[in-house]
Structure formats: structure tokens, C-alpha cells
Amino acid sequence: MAGILQRWGVWIAAAAVILVMPVFVTSGFYITMLNQMGVLIIFALAYNMLLGQGGMLSFGHAVYFGLAGYTVAHYLNGIGEETLPYLPVSLIPIMGGAVGLFFGVLIGFVSTRRAGTTFAMISLGFAEMVTALTLVVVTFFNGEEGIQTDRWVGPEPLGITFGSDVQVYYLIGAWCLIATAAMYALTRTPFGRMCNAVRDNPERVQFIGYSTHRIRWLAFSLSSFFAGLAGALHAVNVEHVGFETVGLAQSGLVLFMVWIGGAGIFMGPILGAILITLLNSNLSDFTDAWYLYLGLLFMTVVMFARNGLAGLIVMHEPIWKIKIGLFQKMIVPYALGIGSTLLAVAGAIGIIELAYFMSTRTTAETITHLYWVEIDAAGPVPWIASAAALAAGFAACTRTYPIMAASYNGAIAEVKALVAS
Amino acid sequence: MEVFLFSMFNGVLYGMLLFMLASGLTLIFSLMGVLNFAHASFFMLGAYFAYQISKYVGFWPALVFAPLLVGVVGAAVERYGLRPVHRFGHVAELLFTFGLAFVMEEVIQMIWGKVPVPYDVPAALNFAAFTWRGLDYSAYRLFMLVVSVGIFVALFLFIAKTRVGLMIQAALSHPQMVQSLGHDVPTIFMWTFGFGCALAGIAGVIGGNVLGTEPAMAITLGPIVFVVIVIGGLGSLWGALIAALFIGIMDNMAISYDIALFPIFAMFGVEREAEGIMRDLVDLTTGGIAPVLPYLLLVLMLIFRPRGLFGTRDV
User: Per-residue pLDDT tens for B120-148?
Assistant: First the structure.
């Protein structure tokens, strides 16, 4: 029993959370957000099969996501008009996966011969090509309007119509769990290990007799399958597929999610997808500068946290596994570091919000709210206060980060000593 | 004939503009191995700086100071942003510039707003230089051509004749050797990056008022510049020039002639009265597929000849 729990505990817990979520989350807004989150988790994990597992940086993975979405939208419309044979909506994602796989096999063959910058540029080329084609091949893409569809089609097995968002939630939840499990299992197979080997040392892989091209190609195709699956769920979820789903912006978003979450760790993309979707849904109404914050967060992670946010968590794993009491000594240094970071971030947010307010306002009104305080954005006080917070926070960071690092290193040294004895 | 000459002229002009971007990008790429995703953002920054400066002191000072400012910003980005990321490898550097392009677009929106700014052609050059068979050609376009050709000549002289240029050439092929000879390679990197950005900035100053100065201008031009440097061959300025002119002329010709592609599809048995997806094929013209062509070339080039036309090493 304990063995089963240890092995399957995470999956059982995840299934349980997915199952009971709608009991606690009843507002339509949050259900919609959760649906989007599920779709993006699958997409991010699929993308990470390339970037994290296979070492291929793609700027065009949304192509497979989007093309599958378009196909599925047409297919659903076909079912509705009774020109195409019926397929249960719950199995439609497999069809999307097949579409993704088809294009992945095709495009993957020519683009995976090399990794690195060549691969990145070919992926960008295909992304731009497909984006340009959305305006040319009007029958399939319908230009800037995109394809409208309806998921409530055909017979209703067991009364499931997917009319309500909660039913779609369970569909996405189930597929999310299946896809995550499948992709995790894949990382544990010999093929998954070979992907990592091709990422780390392609030359040596060739020396022991494997074809790096074939391994990359297979990884690319499988990744496109899951991207297509996510794209199909996206089409079912929002009942509309537009040209933006194949574009550079969508590919960039998934790249941001994966890298911010942590590309080197399996859980990373999941964390990234959850975090970015949460922030996106909640902040984009609140501030115009949301994309600027996203970009800055991404750049910060690129510069300072190689393995993303998941990496920062995993870094502490030995401590809680070996001797959790060691965290006690780290509380004060960490509080200092996090506190000074928050101060700097608060100052930066203040300046950005003030600047955005001043440049986008439509009236001569200069009174606004910053941190729930009414201020005059034209006056110097809020600007000086924000700049001072930023400067003070930054200065504090340069002092507190070494303390934080020292406490971490101390704890890790103690863990090492414990393990050795 | 008029159509041919005018689209040729506009093609060369567009090509020279692309070359100004591509020359900096290809120098940066072959020197540092960094594919600067944000290169077109520096072009955009040049246009916005020129708009802001020309608002106060006029176009001519802007022509000098805007590129200088862009160069300084570029050098600062290299020194404080890119250099610390260098130790994480090329993927991290590429990601950094990708994020930078995103952030720069947002910051420009924050400062100058989401709508195009009224950056106009200077009044002194806003007249028809010549009229030929009823078609006007503006003096400003001629001026653009003169400036871009001048930059091109100056760039070649700089690379071929000056000591710094020779050092850059040496660092292009053997960076370790140059470093062991006692040259400060990180500083060369920084100034090359700034110099490349300044070249993009000049293109922004003289191109922004014709192409339109708006936050989306970087994302529309950026990928085309990648196409140019890949087709020309990395590190090759001649290659960049020829590829830029080729792309510029091809684009203009495809749009101004707008030839129907139906005969090609007819060879494969597509009927004139086709239905569904075939309908789109029947209606295709070269103008319609003009946006696709550069990327098709890019992909084909990377698959079949990754070193480009004049490159000496693969991407």
C-alpha cells in the first residue's frame, strides 16, 4: 500500500484535485480560466519535449497547435452540417493529435537535421509562412476572422452535450491528466533518455551508433502530436480558432511559460502554464502593462534562474528530504532577500504604472490610483517615491543576496555532511 | 516599362534598407554567435528617437544623434544584459534577445502609445524629384538611396581599410587567436553590437517616416532580416547586400506585376471552376504569395545550403 502511494500518489492527488475543483470553483470566470490552463499545460509540456528534453528551441510550435485547431473546428462544423461522419467530441482531441503528428512528421523531417540556431530559424520560417498563408488560403483559415465552430453537435451519449463549461472542464481535465502521464512516461523510456543524450552531446550519440536526426525527428513528431491535441481542446473550449493561434505570439507565449516555469524539470512547464494563465486572467484587466511585466519576468529568469521557478524549488529538495529543520536558520536571510526584492519590484511597478497611465490617458485628468492610494501622476511625489523604492530595494538586494546564498550554501554543506556520515 | 523601372527602383531602395539592418545583424551573429532577435527593435527605436528629436530640433540633427543614441543603448544592452548571459550558452542568449524584443515593443508602447506617431518626411525633401511619364518620384526616396549607398560604401571602407575593421575581420574567423594576441575581445563585442544597432538605427531614421513609425514595425521587418542574412551567408557583407537587394526587388516585382499563378496549377489538372481549397489556388497571384516567398526561401536555404550564398560556415 505504501509502495503504491509512493509511486502513484502524485497522480492520484492530481486526479483528485481535478475532480473536486469545480465544487469549490463555481464562478464561470474561473472555470474558463481553468479550461485555458489545462489546454496550455498540455501545450507547454509538449513544447518542453522539444526544448527541455530534446534541446530544440522552436519559435513556431504553435503551427501544430493551430493547424489542429483549425482542422477540428472544420470537422465539428462538418458534423453539425452532417457532411462528415460523427465522432464523439470527447475523442476529437485524438484527431487533433493526428493532425499535429501529420504536420510534425512532414515538417520535422526537414527541420530536425540540425539543432541549435538552424533549427530555431527553420521553425521561425515555417511559423511566418503559415501565418502569411492564413490570409491566402481563405477557405481553410478564413483570414483574420478565423473559423467559428460549435461543440454541441451530434448525438448526446449519457446526456453529455458539452453545452456547459463544467463539462468541458472535465473533458480537458481528463485529457490533461492522460497527456501529462503519457509525456512523463515517455521521459522514462530509453527513447526519452536518448532525447536527453542528443540534447547534451549529439556527437557522442552518433559515435555509439544512433542517428541524431532520427531521434530529433521522432521527438519532434511526438511533441507535435501533443501540441495538436492541445490545439483541438482549445478549439473545443473556445469554439473559435483565429490566425493568432498559429502565429509567433502564441509560440512565444508557450516559450515564456516553459522557460519561466523551468525547462529542465518535468514539472516546470506545468508550473509556468498555471502561473502565467493565472496572472494573465487576473492582471490583464487590471493593468495595461501586463505584457511588459511578462517580458521582464522572462528576461529576469533567463538572466538569473537557469532552471526557472521549478529550478528554484528543486534546489531546496535535498534540504527537506534530509533534514527539514535546517530551514529554520534560513528563514531570516530568505525573508531579507525576498523583502528587498519585493521593495524593488514595487518601485518598478510604480514607475511603469505611472508611465502607462500618463501615456495612455485620454483626458487631462492626472489623478489616479497607485497601490490603492489616490495620487497625482503629474506631480513629482509618486515618481520620486517609486524611484526611491526601486533604488533602495536594488541596493538592499546587493547586500541581502549574498547573505541568502551563504545560508543556502551552509544548509547544503550540512546536508552533505549528514549524507556522508 | 514604367512599372518595371519604378518597382526596380523601389525594390533597390527597400533592399538597401534591409541591407542596413542585415549588415549589422550578420556582423553581430558571425562575431558573437548571437542571433539578435531584437535587431529590428533597434531599427524601431531609431525611428522613434528620430521622431522625438526632429520634433524639437529638426530632421538633420536627428539623422546624426538618433543612430548614436541607439548605438549607445545597444552597447549598454550588450554590456549589462547579454554579457552575463553569455556563460549560459547560445540558447540563453537567443532567448534573452527574444525577450528583449518583446520588452522593447512594450516599452515603446508605454512611452509613445499604441498608434503610429506622426513622424513625417522633412519638408525640405518633400517634393517630386522627377516626373517621368506621369509618375512622380519623391526627392526623399532619392535621398534615402543616397544615404544607404553612402553607408554601404563607408562600411566597406571601414571593414577593409581601418585597423578596427581588420580586427573585426580577424575576430570573425578566429576569436580565440585575436584574444590571445592581447586584444580585448569582450570590448570588441560590445562596440560591434552597438555599431550594428546604430546601423539599424540609421535605417530607422530614414525609413521610419516612409514605412510608418508604429510599435508593430519591428515584428514585421525582423524576420525578413533573418531571411536576408541566412540567404546571403553568415558573416558575408557582400552576401547580405545581394540577398537584401534580391528580396527587395522580388517583393516589389511580385506585388506590382501581380501575375496569376493559375497556369502552374492548371498543369497539375486544377480546373478553372474549382471548389473548396482548390478555389484558393486558382485565385492565387504573385502579389498574394509575396509575404510567403521570403520564408520559403529561408527554409529551403537552411535545408539545402545552410551556409547561404556567400557564407563560409553553416548557421
Answer: 888 777 777 777 666 677 888 888 889 98
Domain presence at residue B13: yes
Q: Quick check: B284 contacting A, CB < 8 Å?
A: yes
A302 and B96: CB-CB below 8 Å? yes
- How many Cβ contacts (< 8 angstroms) between chains A and B? 123
Q: Give tens-digit pLDDT for B40-70.
A: 999 999 999 999 999 898 888 989 999 999 9
Question: Residue B290: is its pLDDT beyond 90?
Answer: no
- DSSP for chain B? -HHHHHHHHHHHHHHHHHHHHHHHHHHHHHHH----TTHHHHHHHHHHHHHHHHHHH-HHHHHHHHHHHHHHHHHHHIIIIIHHHGGG-HHHHHHHHHHHHHHHHHHHHHHH-SSPB-----GGG-SEEEEETTEEEEHHHHHHHHHHHHHHHHHHHHHHHSHHHHHHHHHHH-HHHHHHTT--HHHHHHHHHHHHHHHHHHHHHHHHHHH-B-TTHHHHHHHHHHHHHHHH-TT-HHHHHHHHHHHHHHHHHHHHH--B-HHHHHTTT--TT--THHHHHHH-BHHHHTTTHHHHHHHHHHHH-TTTTT-SS--
B266 — contact with chain A (CB < 8 Å)? no
Residue in B closest to A125 by C-alpha: B295
Alpha carbon B273 to its chain centroid, in Å, reads 41
Query: Looking at the 3D structure of chain B, how many domains does it have?
Result: 1
Those residues of chain A that have pLDDT short of 50 are: none
Q: What is the mean pLDDT of chain A?
A: 88
Query: What is the domain range of residue B37?
Result: 2-215
Taking CB atoms and an 8 Å limit, are A252 and B94 in contact across chains?
no
Distance from CA of A221 to the nearest CA of B (A): 18
What interface predicted TM-score (ipTM) does this complex get? 0.89
